[in-house]
Records
---
Amino acid sequence: MTRNVLFQIHWFLGITAGLVLAVMGVTGAALSFEPEILAALNRDRPVAAGTARLTGPELITGVMRQRPDAEIGRLIVPSGSDELTSVTYRLKGSKERQFERLDPYDGTLLGEPRGGATIDFLEDLHRWLALPGGGNGIGRQISGFSAIALIYFALSGLYLRWPKRPLDWRNWLVLDFRKTGRNLYRMLHAVIGGWVLIFYCISGFTGLWWSYDWYRQGVRALLVAEGPVEKPKHPKDVPVDPTRAWQGFVHATGGRDYDRVTLIVRDHGEVQFRAKLPNGRHDRVSDELSIDGTTGQMIADKRYAARPVGEDIVTSIFELHRGAYFGLIGRIAMMLASLTMPLFTITGFLLYFARRRRKAALAEVVADTSAAPLDHATTLVAYASQTGSAERIARLTAAALPDAAALPIASLDPDQLSRASRLFVVASTYGEGEPPDNARGFARTMEREAPDLSHLDYAVMALGDREYAEFCAFGHRVDRWLHDHGATRLFDAVEADGTDADAQRQWQHQLAGLGGRTDQPDWAPAAMDEWRLVERRLLNPGSAGGEAWHVALEPVTAGADWTPGDIVEIRPQQDVRRVAAYLGASGLPDTPENRAMLMTSILPTGAGDVATLKPIGHREYSIASIAASGRIELIVRRCTAADGFDGLGSGWLCHGAPVGGIMQARVRANPAFHPPADPSVPLILIGNGTGLAGLLAHLRHRAVRGGAPAYLYWGERHQAHDDFLADERRALMANGTMASQQVAWSRQPGGHRYVQDAVAADGEHIRSAVEAGAAIYVCGSVQGMAPGVHAALSAILGESLLEDMLGNGRYRRDIY
């Protein structure tokens, strides 16, 4: 809760004060070296070799000679030619201040320094945004508010980005430019923010000095022991004699040499002298004396050597603000830190807009979907969301499943878990493997509570970022917690890298296999390519089960590449009979345009505007071929939909699409089912029905590449009709690709035997193969086959070993 509140304030101040701070940063960086810039543009040069620089009184005399009506307010007299000699004065009867260069060798007034107007504008922009009213206008208040915001950014940013391993310096200092997109923006924002944090704190706390009188008075009261204030001896506007005052200063200091002497005329006849000590690291390393401008007598003598620390800080606020308090290195560092302020504005806005897009996507889902009331839901969809992505997917999941309700994972309680029969969790990982803010309470619950969840079936979608070491860590933590407390995993956790479109479609496909809606459009659409249907062959003529077809596709234009285990996503079209029936029932005109639109759209339940229909979502199929073949081969079971017509995907591939015709498809990487990197790893391949396709790709790959042998366990209905690709499987046995194959026939006379029965019967062999390093691959139905095979493997190997194999990639499943 605390993190969320701090974050909300952080981004709100960012979008309100960010632009102001960017302006203040750039102008502040330019002003860091103001004296050097002006001196470089207005270099003092002697008129003749060996010419001596005039003293302060001599320069004053020269000014008064040229400007008899001038009232000198400030005179800066450096000892060397690398600084500007200047005078600020006001003519009698005028309130406007004049600022001019002085020739230090003959006292000639040279006019306003080159670049002076620009510097003045930058100062106005930096201090009060050059708004009307100057220091008494709204600009000063905006600057003060922005200084407070800067302090908040620094401190709250430190808290929000505090790493899991704070003692590892890499977390604080190292920039990883392999990151992209939001991760790059976040890294720049956080890491560089850590670099400049101390400088921004100094800038913010010192910047408030000029914005708020109460702040200035408070700091002064805290750091400086104020003595009694003496009553002025003269009226406020009493005329002063700068020459006499300078002579009094020389007498008081015994004619000591200084790097620079600045004369400043104050009220009540007081003239202050700020004399910078030789080689002082900043301007306020100075002796400061006050001289009576009418008599030349000393009023106050404050030597730097005797200045207390608190008074030194108060006296040097400006030097602290620009970094000069710490010498030249401090000024350079403060300048560079100031120049980074636009970076935080830019990255902050980029992150803000990305967050807004996610919120908009979530709002669209909330508006378009409905779910069962929480009290009556038998299926719960819990989400742990930081930016809205997980919540969006969770709500789409709840809309896809019957009797399902979405809720924050923090709302899950033992009573709800006891009533539910299925739980789907969509969990984001935040930072370095941490739960999102709204899931921290549930994370603590997982540490202290151990409920009995043996009645519960579950699945987890873990959202994370592969650019971070702890990819999807919190989602996997939830997955392990549910499994360890007795819940049954419906299918392996789906990992999503950010807003990974492939992972979202994979999750959507898994839901369809569990009875979820199949009439939804793709949650994360991606471009399709053109493929030609080049072959279609019935594999099981005369079978009492559903027709199984061998289907082959070839790319129309450029070739495609894939790895064994990858998936092809097909965009099907409607059964022409279903479209005709809909046209007849809805009363829509039976036109070629309407038919074409309906063939590629989800049909509504009644009449509607054809132009507003949503497109049909994809259907997924395991690829049986390898990329070297140049074509995608599938094994597709023709299914019948609830309305009596063919299922969308299977009907289109098995009957609807013409051989030689073009269809839309795309290959989706499925790294969770890729082959082992080491071909010497033996393979135990287990599946049923059309799941043979996913296993066959691995066998064909190993037949070409070589490697350790494979052991096949496969189940179908009847040997006489359903022995798919039997000749090829015998050939794979003959050439040594397969060391053995065991086929279970579930409708063979003499008793039902399923693939899990074949696995259980061959337990000793499987245990020996696993001990020798074999990997297990399971492909097929999530209903019946997958849990049955898992139970058999668990009995053979033990649940603990099976979980370890799942974690290290030696137990992989592609179930649907």
---
Amino acid sequence: MPLPTLLAHPVADPAAVVQGDRYRITVLTDGLLRLEHSPDGVFEDRASTFALHRRQPVPEFRVVDRGTHLEVVTRRLRLTYDRGPFTTSGLSVAVLGAVTSWHSVWRYGQDDDGRNLGGTARTLDEADGPVPLEPGVAGRNGYAVIDDSSSLLLTADGWVAPREPGRTDLYVFAYGHDHAEAVRALYALSGPQPVLPRWALGNWWSRYHRYTADEYLDLLARFRAAGLPFSVAVLDMDWHVTDVDPSISSGWTGYTWDRELFPDPAAFLAEVRARGLRVTLNVHPADGVGPHEEAYAAMCAALGLDASTRDPVAFDVTDEAFLTAYLQVLHHGLEAEGVDFWWIDWQQGSHSRVAGIDPLWMLNHVHFLDSGRDGRRPLTFSRYAGPGSHRYPVGFSGDTVVSWASLAFQPEFTATAANVGYGWWSHDVGGHMFGAKDDELATRWVQLGVFSPVLRLHSSNNPFMTKEPWAFAPEHAAVQTEYLRLRHRLVPYLHTMNHRAAREGVPLVTPLYHRWPRQPEAYDAPGAFLFGSSLLVAPVTSPRDGASATAAVPAWLPDGVWVDVLTGLVYDGGRELVLHRDLTTVPVLAPAGALVPLDAADVPGDDPVEPTALEVLVVVGADGAFTLVEDDGTGDGLDDAHVARTPLAWDQAAGTLTVGQATGATAFLPAARTWTATFLSVADGVSPAAVVEGAAVEPVVARTAEGHLRVTVADVPVGAVLRVGLGAAPALRPNDVHGRLHRVLDAAQAGYELKRRALEVLTADRPLHVRLSHLAALPLPPALRAALEEVVLARVP
């Protein structure tokens, strides 16, 4: 059976091409050019690892011959070219639209002076803070360049070929500050992100540890008893035999179950699946296949080798026959036992015996495509291997150091990856190695993991390094448990964003400047990011201050009104500010009109299937809409015959939330659902009412401790329309300033009389400037003063 192939349309429409004897210019979109120069006059039309779909709708453009040079003009750019070998003076692209008052011209060979906004990196192995990033397709100067001159080429038969040396193949993105559109152009050219299986969006348990089958199952039982949901079970390398003669193998590579640990692998895998989890196994393929492996004889037979020699079968990613046997002999049998996907742990660099063939890219490519055989939804788990890698999720970012510096870099690293379309990073939550035990650090990392593309707890094989919540002090264990449950509650929202990422070209996590590209503050807040369509997250990445018992988070809020969905505090936007949070919470803010669907279960199950009860968070103050997307789990997720959509709409003037009837493939959905509309921080005086298919029903109404209003209607058929009304134009309630100030001061490690005075000063019936100037005169610790000021100034009536 040949290797699977990738759908591609690599030959551009001739109408988009401007060509000479040694150059070829292809106008792929109005903001994306392919620029080729070939000394031998031969140009490349095969797909590359980066560029699959050069045949795009031809945009409007003009070609102007100036005699000494050629110009190509679209609504976004003006190319100027002297028709010769590419040089700094002879080839340039000017970005139109007044992007900057200067520097918005790309010149071949000229350093962009660090103005590229960055993409991502191959790995965070051993990172202890920031690492250099490869370029992305967004730039502060309005342009970015991907050099595709040395990437692999994909042949029609599913194999690969190296490039001819000496040819230049560039892709110039000239989208100005429309960074989100530049990323969509990347997807149009390189292929979209795929739809992940729904279960991949839950919590993943992973630990480098020599588990036995019974120990692992006992651990899963203890997780369940503690109300800790996990949807993916990761087995690191000790699932296979590691005690190997060093003359044969290092022991890191293996395909044979260690039956001292797992005496009945198929039964173990079946039991894990029965508990609602999927399984991935770690594989380090570099050592090939030794004679100790159960599959050795079959591999030799498949490759025509003599098994009696007992010589190891060398790993050779450049040999198509080897790769075919590698998949079919080594992996398919294990998959038949119950392995769902593979953790490809390649650490041996980017070179092979054929120049240009990167083993990591090859492994990602063939594993991902192979995992989609027989109509299954493909998935793999591996490191980043350059532009185009977004097609092969999920990314494994590597073995970071356990430190606050590592944690502080990961929000920016994750968001910036969107600039090269790489939307599905999975980090070692809590850090992988070295460092020291720090319960607060571990807890903040779990909170970041909840608002990351994939949440996977992991650690090294140090016996003191483990990530079970009960391994930490009770205060921290309770918070971690709450957030791990929240991750599974978020799956309805996450899975909708999963479909949005594949269909609309918008990664789950994006930098703020993707939505507010002309706001300088959006570029100056790298630690904050957009989490889907409705949430802005500013993770806590520094320890708490001793006096205030809170951690400080510099942030920027765009114009409008924002509500912290975890605390209920309402903010006026349009400013930079410092947010302060105790251990139990992190800033997760939603604008007026936001709708966020959640699983309504307090303790969700391990397998995050379509829930029978859903909660919708609603921020009043502006109209809003959200379409909940679900699928039956078959195929690639893009066939609408297997997708159900439920429209949600908030009408601010009428004060009505409408849950429309589910349409599409609804057979896999529950026949009826309980819906809870939670109106965040909505003012008192509203009159909740509910109507199902025109008939009034009696909802259950309650106020939460955070001041939210919950309206619940049970047993709504999926084909029915539900309307939950509050009355015309409901408003957000004023912040409970006194109560919040009291809570901040109560937790503060400061003198009792000083705390009493601060509360009296801030709640006195005096003008705001008088109260704040009086507060400034008190001998309060600076962090405590700042936390109090945040409450008073969050939103001034």
---
Amino acid sequence: MTAAVRQARRQRFHAPLAELIAEAAALRDSAHGRLMSYSRKVFIPLTKLCRDVCHYCTFAQVPRTGKPVYLSPDEVLAIARAGAAAGCTEALFTLGDKPELRYQAARDALKALGHETTISYLAAMCALVLRETGLLPHANPGVMTRDEIAGLREVTASQGIMLESTSERLCRQGGVHYGSPDKAPAVRLETLRLAGELKVPFTTGILIGIGETRDERIDALEVIRDLHAAHGHIQEVIVQNFRAKPDTKLANSEEPDLDDLLWTIATARLILGPDMNIQAPPNLSPGAYQKLIDAGLNDWGGISPVTPDHVNPEAPWPAIAELARKSADAGKLLVNRLSVYPRYVRDADTWLAPDIATRVRRMSDAEGFARDDDWAPGNTKPPPAPLVIARGVDTGIAGIVERATSGERLASNDIVRLFAARDADYRYVTQAADALRRAVSGDVVRYVVNRNINYTNICTYRCKFCAFSKGRTHEDLRGSPYDLDIDEITRRSIEAWDRGATEVCLQGGIHPDYTGATYEAICQAIKAVVPDMHIHAFSALEVTQGAATLGLPIHEFLAKLKAAGLGTLPGTAAEILDDEIRAIICPDKINTGQWLDVQRAAHQAGLRTTSTIMYGHVETSSSWAIHLLALRDLQAETGGFTEFVPLPFVHMEAPMYRLGIARPGPTFREAVLMHSVGRLALHPLIPNIQTSWVKMGPAGAAVCLKSGANDLGGTLMNESISRAAGTQHGQEFPPHNMEALIRSINREPMQRDTLYRPVPEDRRAASVIAADLEPIVLTPPRKGGSRLGDAPLGQQRGHAKFLEQRAGTCAD
């Protein structure tokens, strides 16, 4: 590029400041919307020695007799533990550049600590903080070699180095970087390049007002842009304004004024593009928050409720609550992020070391921000109250809600936007869903008296989310396998009827000896002893397997089950109807198309089904949108779904959580939004939105009933699957508890049957005077076959063929 072309392209930056700011703000909003992020962190000044002598710095000191050169491990841990107690997620290690290359005192101190270099000691302290506190280390040690960056990558979530400037003039005599070998632009740029090659989420930035020209600022920003274009690793760019400090060579120098800072921020946004995270320290420009936001910022950087800004100790941090209010005044919503930004969280396996990736996933929500609560599905923590600071509602959100309530099919990106609602937008979405619920179903909350019967926990599948399925032998480490006698199934069905149940819900593992005849026999046996009991049984996986073992098309097998007494099908085995996610969590299971085909065939056969989603693990809101639209489109075709049931992932004992590949379920905000957005996105085709007391807990379920849900599900009597995963919410929620909960939110309870019809009075009467349950019998597996009956030879051959076909599919 010639100098003339280069200068012509830079003419845009000579536009009036108001025009630049307006363009930058619009560009920022196109990618970041209303969100202003920050990181809640502690600052750990590992050492204040530095071999450089920058003329503006008060952080760097010289060795002093009797004063420790480095923080000890105990001192490091004390700071980190204080940060963890204050809700921080990041430990920012600040330190000077390789002081051991200048000071004997540094070499001696390192030797006493068992290290040769500062960066070696830094890596050890990062590992210590990570192990003992769970805070995510972010390291700013200055210039680094490839090996040093790679070593720190194993114990940090992110790293950084301020480029400051690419001006060689500033390194010459009279310049602020004269005598500072680590401030040579080429040296710092090489560190940035190496970090990109090593896939390290990296922070950099420029320091303005230290003698550089505006053209030199543009040079630095363009170099950063080009490095990011090559490697994709620059996660944030800081625009930091020089502050004159006493006892420095620049003590009497003029600081950049606010307009100069705003020009630089806007220019950075225009050069770096809409997606880049651009920040300016708020403590260096107090009172200018609105203007900084207007110029194109989307991040406030690290804010500590515990430690000062050790680089600028004269400038106190704003209180986080005050920062939230000021952001809200500017129309933005403050959101806490991790030290690593959402983009890199979503692709953690690429950008983070394995142990760090596990920790980051467990600390993040579906969007990749820091979790905003410690609630999880299945635990007994009280649900958090939503924080509402902003006054207005995003006009885009309001428009999407309006289209949804009118019955319009939303686009996928509309649904994603609803799931991202926070603060006032969250309240608006949940209230709109509740108003729609009232319009559709009034103030009646329904529930069904039913019993879960999980006939076997032996399963040939290995879904990574399932803590229920077991191997075939007692040596299985995940618990004892069982295979119920048919007499136990019928006994439980009779007992359920006597206790007022109108439904038995039957599901289980895919036992290697079960065939389609097994499922048919279960239905026949129940109908023989309790002819009026509604059988709600067999997910799409059991149907697919059963049909294959008999060599029948799906529709013919469903006809056989219906003739045997099957009334409806549960919509489980759906998990997430996005095959990219299914390939991770249940690779050997039926795919999205097969699940939808079973539902379609059931509806065509006159069998209604429920619909579910299992969310909060490895997927994002994009997958939620795909799932909801798949349900809506099938419902528009068949009309066969009775309800939508969000099932938040219970993580405690789930294999994929224990393996480190999943989040600990949705946040409470996300869980409530699944009910609200489900109500809006499925309107008017699926009128019933059910909330799971097993997973949400009674208090959480009550919130969902005020956010779009109208059904409380079943009393269950025996809940096994969520209990195996770790839920603490019990195995039965009897009618008096159901009705007390419903009345506590000023709604009217009503018992229903599976098809949402009122139950006869004798059923209700039996349910409210139910006797205690008899102990269940979990019969162990029988050697040489299933207890539920041996299949005829032809069916055994069909089953063998099914397993062979499935093995081939898995191999592919």
---
Amino acid sequence: MTAAHIIYWMSPDQPISLADDLAARSDELLLDLLQARPDLASPPPPGVTVLAQRALSAASINRCGEDLDVLAVAVLETLDALRRASGGGPVAAAAIIEALSERAAPDAIGARIDSLVALALIWGPQEALQTGPHMPAAWPWRSPLATAPVNLLDLASIRAKIDGLGERERELLTTLSSGPGLGRTRDAALGPDSDRPVPQLVHQDMLVVVDEQTVELPVVIGQLLRDEDPAEPRSLRPPELTGGGGRKIGLGEVDAAAAGEALEFLRHSTDVLEALGVQPATVLRAGGMGVREIRRLTKVVSVDEKRMGLVLEVLSGLRLIDSGFPVPDVSDGLEPSWAPTTSTDSWIHQSPERRWYSIASAWIDLHRRPWQIGDRTPDGTIVGALVGAIPEGAARAERLLVLQALAEAKPGAAVTPTSLGRQIAWRHPRWIRRLPQATIAETLSEAQALGLVAHGALTSAGREIVAAGSAEDIETQTLGAMARSIPAPIDFFLAQADQTITAPGPLTPELTADLSLVADLESGGAASVYRVSEATVRRALDAGRTGTELLTFFTSHSKTPVPQSISYLIDDVARKHGQLRVGVAGSFIRCEDPTTLAAVLSSPVADALSLRALAPTVAVTSEPLIDVLERLRAAGFAPAGEDAEGELVDLRFRGARLPTPRERHSARKTSLSLPSRDRLGAVLTHMRSQDAANSATLVRPGKGGSSVTGGGLPATALLQKALNSKSTVRLGYVNAEGFASRHVVVPRLIGAGQVIAVEPGTDDEHRFSLHRITTVEMVD
């Protein structure tokens, strides 16, 4: 949409109002305006005059300013400066282009002028552009950004000015650079002759005076003082997204590397859920999880504390872990604990790409920053996992800004954090102070850990997850992209003579479960290594497998011959396993070999369990079955559990669980829902109807016209007269919400307390309750 599409009936020398400008626009252009600035459409404005008033309000302009880039801001600042220089009169577009032509391409400046006209931030013909009194509300800060004197210099000159400052001046600027950049001081009104630091800095253009008691630090000076690497402030051209200069890689290699990271993060998440199910973590009195518990989990999962904090925060955001009193109670039950929720059992059986999508979506939607765990807040408090800092709505916006900026690079192209920061600063100047380079780097690090970014580039799945569209379409496209990136699961492995099992790719869920039962994972990833030991074989036998079944399992799934070291180990453990049988008496012990049972009864464990022999092959105890098994194993025996029918039973602990909270994480949230074009079309129709009603020509007194206020018999009589003569009337009407409006219509039917009418020249029917009609006026 461009300003050239608007037809003006007034000369450039005669300024027009924004209301007149909007009235001259076509329905298509007004729909574009309402779509770009949806706050103008709620509630539906009763005509273009009210629409113009809303568009000129400071609050609406401020919201619109969130989406302006640096060049658009520079156009507004230049227009404001030229208007003040001309005494507040209109400004020609050519003057703006000329003022900025050395800093940006003229075509780009003209395009920004057209877009600002389309947004109703400025209006009028190209020869006489105007703006409202609250236009500075669209600026990123209270002082000019692009047209500030310091931004007309290059970085080398600005650094030289900083290096030449005295100790007091530099300390003052450093203090301002660590905050929002605004400072309150009575020295702001002093002239350059003062020897105070603030007037001297103002005189050197290192500070900008906002009012008599407020100064603001130019953003580029703050960036340099924070040792950041900003773009040249004089240039208003968009910065390029550049890489580190290494070897070029393709999108396929990026996706493959990210898929490995994604699988690794899923494995760590599953391990954390299992660890918390076996031993829930105590909730601190202040909430959250303590450092001691986190360190315990890092040892179990074999990750560092930073990654553990990220895993915990994401699992909490996904509602897979929560705090409360888990069941069964594996602690003393006196204090709440962090444990998996019931959603865990269904989540771990989903496909890898679906589990990854839920993890990535939860991370994007987090209102906390996991990388801040362990840092200190401004008041000195340490930020803990799952607690310790107030949730910030900006955290989600930061991630989306970073990922969306990465998506603008060519697929597979690496982008450095510095280049990315410059791009974000140019497209979203309001975020320059909110989003320092350190935050961008940490966000990229987390995105890489989750498999959204690899080799400095956004993956195919990452591009889909931040794309525009409905939540359903985003989920479908993202799942498809990740499914193509993850290697197809395999149903085989390679058995080695050193009792290790190598999986050259991700295993099927069924094979993973069976292999994890008989072997321990030593290293994970896209290719993983497991180790078979006496303890793991006994674990499989305890779960009900037989030695023959285990040998068959290895023979059928190993692409290499099963080594003798593994087959001998299975035979040896299976021969000893289960000679002792433990049941419920409390519990009973039976053994087909009287000698083995006699050895048990003569050992110290017999006294500890209070064993009593019933027969040479049977003994009983009052202790629970699990305790008997554990104590016999600790004493060097190899018992197995059996049920009442004598069948082996799987007595592995499945983990404690908490109820899933009601606020479950569902499909990934998209940006704030915007009204559809059809709905905005209805708003526009209502607005046009109000304009037509307000401008309708009434029948003058003395020519048969009349006006009736109220909804009684006279109004009904006048409506009946219009019905009989097929005349047009203007109705004043108040709807059920108390919203007053006017309508120009032709009555078609009156009855049952309602008037059915159509707009002139259309067949669109409208229904009006008689008791809500306030006025009836005949129209010429």
